[in-house]
C-alpha cells in the first residue's frame, strides 16, 4: 500500500480507515503518524467512549475506570496499529466493522487487566505531545456538553428494556457529520435488531426517533455543568 509521506492535517480526512492504521504505524515519520492518529481519534472516539461507558456503567469507580479503559485503548492503538488486518476486505463499511471489533477486543483486555490489577493505568503522557495538542484542537472545535452518569441513567430509565437496547446500539454507531460523513446504524445491525424484536426496520427507526426525543428532552431539562 503506497502512502504519501508529505501529508497535511486536512489531507488525512480523505484517507481511508485502513490507510490511517498504516500511517499511524509509520513511527519513522512522526508528523504523518501523529496527524493520522488525530484523525483516527476524531472518527472513533465516540465509538470507543460509548463502549467504555457500556462495559463500566455498573462497576465500582466507573468514571475513573472508564477513562482508564478509554485512554489505555487509544495508547494501544497508537503503539500497535500495525497489527490490525483488514483480512482482505475492500468494502469501507466492512473494514470499519473490523476496526470496531479490533477495538472492542482491546477494550475488553484493558478492562480485565485493570480489574485484576495486572498492570498500572498507563500514563497518557506516554503519548506524543504533538498528538495531544492535535486532539485538544479537535475537541475545541467539537465542544459538546457532558452529563453526569446519574442523569444519563435516569434518562435511560424512561425507556423500556427493549428501547434502551435499541437506543444504545444506535448511539454506539452514531457519528455526526456532513452528508456522506454522517454515520448511523449500518443496515445489517438494523436487520439484526428487527429480527431480535420480531418487528420491521421502519419500527426500529421509529423506536430510535421516539427514544431520542425522550432522552434528549430529559437531558436538556436536567442539564448540569460542565463542558469539556
Describe this structure in words.
Helix content is 63%, strand content 0%. It has 228 residues and is mainly α. The protein folds into two domains: 11-143, no CATH class; 145-228, Arc Repressor Mutant, subunit A (Orthogonal Bundle). The chain is globular, with a radius of gyration of 18 Å. The N and C termini lie far apart (38 Å). Residues 1-9 and 120-146 have low confidence and may be disordered.
Write out key terms for the chains shown:
single chain, mainly alpha, Arc Repressor Mutant, subunit A, 2 domains, 228 residues, 9 helices
Task: Itemize the secondary structure elements and their pairings.
Blueprint: H1 17-24, H2 30-56, H3 62-80, H4 92-115, H5 129-141, H6 149-156, H7 161-173, H8 187-196, H9 201-221
Amino acid at each position: 500500500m503506497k502512502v504519501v509521506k508529505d501529508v497535511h492535517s486536512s489531507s488525512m480526512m480523505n484517507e481511508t480507515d485502513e490507510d490511517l492504521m498504516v500511517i499511524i504505524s509509520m513511527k519513522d515519520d512522526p508528523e504523518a503518524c501523529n496527524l493520522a492518529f488525530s484523525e483516527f481519534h476524531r472518527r472513533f472516539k465516540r465509538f470507543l467512549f460509548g463502549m467504555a461507558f457500556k462495559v463500566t456503567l455498573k462497576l465500582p469507580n466507573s468514571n475513573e475506570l472508564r477513562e482508564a479503559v478509554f485512554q489505555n485503548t487509544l495508547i494501544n492503538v497508537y503503539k500497535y496499529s500495525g497489527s490490525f488486518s483488514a483480512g482482505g476486505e475492500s468494502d469501507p463499511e466492512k473494514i470499519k466493522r473490523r476496526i470496531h471489533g479490533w477495538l472492542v477486543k482491546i477494550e475488553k483486555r484493558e478492562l480485565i487487566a485493570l480489574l485484576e490489577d495486572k498492570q498500572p493505568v498507563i500514563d497518557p503522557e506516554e503519548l506524543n505531545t504533538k498528538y495531544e495538542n492535535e486532539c485538544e484542537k479537535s475537541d475545541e472545535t467539537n465542544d459538546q456538553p457532558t452529563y453526569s452518569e446519574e442523569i444519563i441513567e435516569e434518562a435511560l430509565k424512561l425507556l423500556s428494556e427493549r428501547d434502551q437496547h435499541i437506543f444504545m446500539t444506535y448511539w454506539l454507531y452514531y457519528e455526526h457529520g456532513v452528508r456522506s460523513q454522517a454515520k448511523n446504524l449500518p443496515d445489517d445491525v438494523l436487520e439484526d435488531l428487527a429480527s431480535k424484536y420480531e418487528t420491521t426496520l421502519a419500527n426500529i427507526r421509529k423506536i430510535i426517533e421516539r427514544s431520542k426525543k425522550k432522552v434528549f428532552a430529559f437531558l436538556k431539562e436536567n442539564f448540569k455543568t460542565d463542558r469539556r
